[in-house]
């Protein structure tokens, strides 16, 4: 067929200014499309039979009508070509390789034989016109040439280079014969030429229609493929999403039933939220892409890496016979993600935690396996991040306890089972109460009084701390207005409350409702809040301060204790953690730290309050170091709200008595 293309004059190929009938136009198109155009040629053989039977019949007719022997030669040639063509059609239909490329290769000889048929039939019709003097035979030959040309044009319009070549081969001898016959036949030659041009135009139009249909079909199938891909892949990273991941996990289960094993590793990025919040979402997205590259570099081709959402990734490690192989992969992943990322010249440090569940063993189906790997991940995170943990059945029991506690907490909040206890804060010099810290308790119907350590961490994780904190604030403000002597009330704010919206409005509302003087409310925040170190945190702190309330830094000395926090925000008070107070007099380091913090805060005009004061010796040491306030069991344990008026009265009397005793002990200089 390439030969047919080559032997066709260039001017014809440029018919109407386009290379539409060029073989190259077909070679250039996607093999799928080219194969679709060619395939129908081999599907129906009836039109082929007609194309061969008509010249055969004319040969037989002429052989009986004239003495010429040459029609017999054409008869034999036509029969040979018919048999070869039909044989080729069946060979092509039965080819082993169904690919479009194979079809294109296999169809080449067919086009060659097709051209041979057109040339021989055209020559036969031309010779009839030129050599026979019988008008009927000449008419039959002209009709046969034009009829087969019309049939060929319509049958092969999808392969225009072939259709035009065949039509030309069938009609050219007719034109030549008519021209040679003399001027009386030139009208016939002109008619055949016009017929040829008309057929070319029909072929061209049909081909254009077919191409359009093919393009629309291709676009539709590409669209379907794209939406199919999008439905099963994560758009940001290109990794399999939850849907495809589930399918792969189910496949892994099916393989495990045939004896194979695998491991599921659920991976979470540590501090991803901070990166997103502080550096913005574009950096967060770039980080996720960089993480994806590192994950893919760390696994084998047979493993599956998927993004399940946010900063959650999952890996199916195929053929993980031994836990050691899984441990090695987990170690590799933690190390890979622990190395700082360079994102547009910015160094970003995150880490990862991994929970692992094994197949078979840790779950009978995908849901259970995922749940168990998640539980192991939860444990890995709870143990300090940057770690991996294998699932253990006891984790399930713990998780169920945790869930039960969460449900119980929600119920307790709705039923009003929380209470506030208060612990006094006293001035070191005078022992007078300057304020009281509100400390939440849960009066559980079965478990009795539950301390905050048993439920605050879970309330923070689940977000329940936000409504709980709102209640604490409203209750504490309402209680404080009734206290004799108007001491301040200190309320703990959790980092989760800072992250939630509407904190400032909530504080303002509590003050409005209770009519408490804002200067009497002290909000205690921990370093974790400052660690969130975003502009938003500082703005919130300044807005709170603008309400007139006081802000205290709690548990100072425990976490990172960055002095820059004190520089970034003008705290009213710094509370020294009880771990330092309790070592006073025993540890030179604690003595030095308490002294340093006290001096620093005095210089910055901030009050220092020492927590956990239990002995007179500790109080005396604090007095010597210039600490202004103290809080601890020495003065009182946290007490229920109902006891506070009495407690304040008692402590007031004690401080007056203490003052009297100390003034009696001091000799009067005037005496
Ligand atoms: N976000 C909120 N957190 C709260 C709230 N209420 C309490 N909490 C936090 O829970 C933690 C534990 O509190 P609690 O069991 O009440 O313990 C407090 C005191 O009882 C204890 N303390 C005080 N003096 C002494 C002492 O002399 N010895 C000793 N062993 N313990 C003592 O310290 C806790 C108060 O600590 P702090 O808050 O740092 O001042 C605790 O972290 C609370 O913050 C709440 O409503 N919201």
From TrEMBL:
Cite the EAL domain residue spans from the record: 402-652
Q: Where are the transmembrane segments?
A: 46-64, 70-90, 110-132
| Organism from which the protein derives | Paracraurococcus lichenis
Task: Answer yes or no on keyword Membrane.
Answer: yes
Matching entries from SUPFAM superfamilies are given as: EAL domain-like (SSF141868), Nucleotide cyclase (SSF55073)
Domain spans labelled GGDEF: 260-393
Q: Tell whether Membrane is among the UniProt keywords.
A: yes
Record's SMART domains? Answer: EAL, GGDEF
Keywords, alphabetical: Membrane, Transmembrane, Transmembrane helix
Instruction: Say which domain of life the source belongs to.
Output: Bacteria
Q: What is this protein called?
A: EAL domain-containing protein
